[in-house]
Specification:
8-stranded parallel β-sheet, alpha/beta, TIM Barrel
């Protein structure tokens, strides 16, 4: 059985996984726009295969695919009443893929129901979180991730609900600009969440590595505990520094895709900053994850040696080397 999360973090950096919804959308299993995860009950083998891909690439945690698996979002696409089925199935599939080799993280996310200072909206958010968490823990998860929060206030509600389980909790914010929607800097947000009991604080999604690194660096300076970073693998711009605001969102993002080496460079830089939990989010697939694993020393650079013979080539790699490196 895989070692508990907090024990792993005491020993060194933990490598999370990549993004699920957009990866499965590109394969035709998820609808762009609502991005709800009914794939867990409609096409479970597709999700199982992606979990296995991330595990093979070096991921030490498999996050259950329950992003937007709340009653309000599921009702939006005609899956009202399927809350329990979808959340339980997500955990079972992740468990099956893990085979005891990786931790399985429960998941809740932003609800789009939060309103600052509105107690009724806060109670609605709590119910949405509690319902998801109840079904996920019924099957069994190793820790809980609350992610992609634009408001610190909503993140605190998710933390409150997650902490009731007694499981370790990771809470990560998303940034459209220099501050959260309730006016908190990354450092302030991290301090508030750590002070409220989060075992790990950090940032995920919305930003690419270029824009996320300064955010997570500020968080790292602000808190004493564990810090997480999981960027998107889609390029952002100074004018719109978050991928959901790019013209290609939600289903024309191919030209924005980062290379595996750009994500690997991020992982190494994040490690050097003292980030404890490193992973990817939307757009981050197996090839990215594998390079990230290599960059932080979780996986060998090459799987096996092969007999290279440029004089008598047996592959295009050998035959066209001169064209690639400019020697001919």
């Amino acid at each position: 059985m895989s070692k508990p999360l907090l024990d792993r973090l005491k020993e060194g950096v933990v490598l999370g996984d990549g993004g699920y919804l957009l990866a499965l959308e590109s394969r035709g299993y998820v609808q762009a726009g609502p991005f709800t995860p009914e794939v867990t009950i409609e096409h479970p083998n597709a999700l199982l295969a992606l979990h296995q891909e991330f595990l093979h690439a070096g991921a030490e945690v498999l996050q259950v695919m329950t992003f937007y698996a709340s009653e309000n979002k599921l009702a939006q696409i005609g899956y009202a009443g399927k809350l329990g089925d979808i959340n339980r199935a997500a955990v079972k599939i992740a468990r099956q893929a893990s085979g005891g080799k990786a931790l399985v993280a429960g998941n809740v996310c932003l609800t789009w129901k939060y309103k600052e200072g509105d107690s009724k909206a806060a109670d609605e958010c709590r119910k949405l979180f509690d319902d998801q968490i109840r079904f996920q823990t019924e099957v069994g998860v190793d820790f809980i991730i609350g992610e992609t929060f634009l408001w610190v206030g909503e993140a605190l509600l998710a933390l409150e609900c997650a902490k009731k389980t007694g499981l370790p909790t990771m809470i990560t914010m998303s940034f459209e600009g220099p501050k959260t929607r309730d006016g908190k800097t990354p450092g302030e947000a991290a301090k508030i969440l750590e002070g409220a009991g989060a075992d790990i604080v950090g940032t995920n999604c919305w930003q690419d590595p270029t824009f996320m690194l300064p955010v997570v660096e500020e968080m790292r300076r602000a808190v004493k505990g564990y810090v997480a970073a999981q960027p998107v693998a889609y390029r952002c711009t100074p004018e719109v520094p978050f991928f959901t605001g790019q013209k290609g969102f939600p289903d024309r993002l191919d030209p924005y895709q980062l290379t595996r080496y750009e994500m690997g460079d991020f992982a190494k830089k994040a490690l050097d900053l003292g980030v404890n939990y490193i992973g990817g989010c939307c757009g981050c697939e197996g090839s990215h994850m594998r390079q990230m694993a290599r960059a932080i020393g979780k996986m060998p650079v090459e799987d096996r040696e092969w007999a290279i013979n440029y004089e008598s080539p047996q592959s295009a790699t050998e035959a066209y080397k001169g064209l690639r490196d400019g020697s001919r």
